[in-house]
Amino acid sequence: MTGFNISLIVAAAAIAVSFFYGLFTRNYSTVDRLWSVLPPVYLLIWFRDIGFNPRYIVAFCLVVLWGSRLSVNFALKGGYRFSFRRGFTGEDYRWSILRGRIKNRAVFELFNLFFISGFQLLLIFLFTTPLYYYGKNNSSVNPFEILLYCLHFAFLFCETAADIQQLRFYRRKNTEPWKNQKRYRLGFNTFGLWRYSRHPNYVCEMSQWVVVYLYLVAASGTLHITGLGAVLLITLFAGSTVFVESVTLSKYPEYGEWRRLSSVWIPFRSLVKKKQGDEFLSSDK
After folding, report:
1. pTM of the entire structure?
2. Cα separation of 264 and 199, whole Å?
3. Residue 156 to residue 43: CA distance in whole angstroms
4. How far apart are CA 113 and CA 267, in angstroms?
């Protein structure tokens, strides 16, 4: 059996585990716990078909760094909390909100099967798949690929910085001496990268997987159907952005004004309206 076929079995098993764990425990974050683990696992399995290929080794190392960062960040948020009595207790807050909105249990479990578990875990496989075909390419590494390695690392670095800034903000916002400062009283982060993009972590996450697809384009010189994974990932984050912003707006009234002055992803509006944004952040009104 090829490594690719084994990875398909792993993907199917992950969907089944995620669905049934949510069904029996009502904790739907199995997909979040697997998100950072499965791409490195797939790449390890694909070594069976690819063997030693320097370009694949570099890509593998970058994906392992990506997965390690995401796992640590999710752990710091309590995502891996576990007890022998109750199993995993940490869960992404969005699932509890959606449980409140989708009150019919049968309907929610269909949502669990087709979206939470089915679509998202299939998506993880799809946006990782370009690396399989990338590793099968045995031509010499070209300068564009080296540039993409650097770009991949830059996005990884920025996403790590955004995570650190977000964790620091939430640890400070209810403690002295920061809690009385305007930017902490707002309730949402406007520091560092978050000053210029309302979702810098989303931007960097999507960008890394677009770069992964571009590895294949750079090596082969042609477009490839596996680019669908990156397109679907962007679509998922677009929907997630709308949902998260609706939740934030319901909690923090001033978020509406901040949305008017800031950029959702790429910091065009934040730069154009920087003066108004600075005035908003410094005002005590």
Report:
1. 0.94
2. 6
3. 18
4. 36
Q: Give the tens place of pLDDT for each residue, 216-268.
A: 999 999 999 999 999 999 999 999 999 999 999 999 999 999 999 999 999 99
**How many residues can be counted in the chain?**
285
Number of C-beta neighbours around residue 204 at 10 A: 22
- 237's CB contacts (< 8 A; 6+ apart) are 199, 202, 205, 206
